[in-house]
Design goal:
Length: 335
């Protein structure tokens, strides 16, 4: 079975971290997100992966010049312009010559979904498409997917207004699709799978869904980008992973708790880093505090500064000594 992984979005909610690279090339505990996603596929025997690229495709091509990634062979499908989710699926599937049922993944989701069982459910139902679901507290940020007792999708509501969602089961961003779905997607324009294609399949009673009932997170916001990594270091997904890179330099008088510290990062004397992610080469000055925030590659936090409240400091940025960043993005947007 082949898989299409959507990695062509702009990563707007993670700016400025995504100014120079797609979000799926950001590290998750010091390893690019895409390697976690593709590694999960190879764990289920899927080693032929089509990357649906749009924004900054060369960052992927340069990282995996032979097209080998986490045990899989990659096919690069580069959109001439952003085609939105369904347009991207169609373009990638045709580009790669897919003509059998295939898997589609939102490339910013980390999950322990049992893909093998998921595909079996699709085959047994004889569905044209099957969506994996996940239960969340606030469905309004996702696609909401009520089903009947047989798993048939009754409605697909993308990002309903808060308080109006018909169920708390949401689209987990993993689909099995029959190739006939490609015929439903118009060529040469933006088409959303969530707003256009899935509602049409619901009307034809051909779309099914099943609760994946396992670990799941969409890493697309700073808060969830941090959370996805703390979940690994705190052992929510099996054995806890060590979040501190071997060559990070943490002063004996610094406190680092529940955090990820990238290769070559430095934490000075008296500094406190808590619930934070420091990317490679980040430098935290003496007595500085970084809490619940992300510090980009080679960024420098001056002595005594406070970076708190889900702040995001971009690559190479400098925060002045004793400055406070509370819920701030520095810079506010890409140059
Ligand atoms: N190639 C390509 N082209 N990829 C794209 C494009 C495009 O034009 N637009 C978005 N993508 C990719 C993104 O890079 C991401 O991996 C995936 O498609 C989903 O886009 P997001 O921007 O992350 O969507 P979302 O998180 O707001 O909502 C989606 O995911 C939720 C679950 O995580 C929807 O599918 C929701 O229904 C779903 O609940
Ligand atoms: Mg997302």
């Amino acid at each position: 079975m082949r898989a299409v992984v959507l990695v062509g979005g702009f990563g707007t909610r993670l700016r400025p971290l995504t100014c120079a690279r797609p979000k799926q090339m950001l590290p998750i505990v010091n390893r690019p997100m895409i390697e976690h996603v593709v590694g999960h596929l190879t764990d289920h025997g899927i080693d032929d992966v089509v990357l649906s690229l749009g924004f900054l495709p060369d960052v992927f091509r340069e990282a995996y010049p032979q097209g080998r990634c986490a045990g899989a062979q990659l096919h690069y499908a580069v959109e001439p312009e952003p085609l939105d989710t369904a347009g991207a699926i169609r373009f990638a599937a045709l580009d790669a010559g897919i003509d059998e049922r295939f898997l589609v993944l939102n490339g910013d989701v980390l999950t322990d979904l049992d893909i093998t069982r998921f595909v079996e459910v699709h085959d047994r139902a004889g569905a044209e498409g099957t969506i994996a679901l996940h239960k969340v507290a606030d469905p309004s940020r996702y696609g909401v997917v009520p089903t009947d007792g047989d798993g048939r999708v009754l409605e697909f509501v993308e990002k309903p207004a808060p308080g109006t969602a018909p169920t708390d089961l949401i689209n987990a961003g993993t689909y099995v699709l029959e190739p006939s779905v490609l015929d439903r997607i118009a060529a040469g324009r933006r088409v959303s799978v969530e707003r256009e294609v899935f509602p049409a399949m619901v009307a034809d009673r051909r779309l099914y869904a099943v609760d994946g009932d396992t670990y799941w997170i969409d890493t697309g916001t700073p808060q969830e980008y941090i959370q996805a990594q703390l979940d690994l270091t705190e052992g929510l997904r099996g054995e806890p992973v060590d979040g501190v890179a071997d060559d990070a330099r943490i002063d004996a008088d610094a406190q680092v708790r529940r955090s990820v510290v990238g290769p070559g990062a430095v934490v000075g004397a008296g500094a406190r880093v808590e619930g934070a992610v420091l990317l490679s080469g980040a430098d935290i000055g003496r007595g500085a505090v970084v809490e619940g925030s992300v510090v980009g590659h080679d960024a420098r936090i001056g002595a005594g500064a406070r970076v708190v409240g889900c702040s995001v400091v971009g690559d190479g940025e400098v925060v002045a000594p004793d400055a406070t960043l509370d819920g701030v993005r520095q810079p506010a947007d890409c140059p």
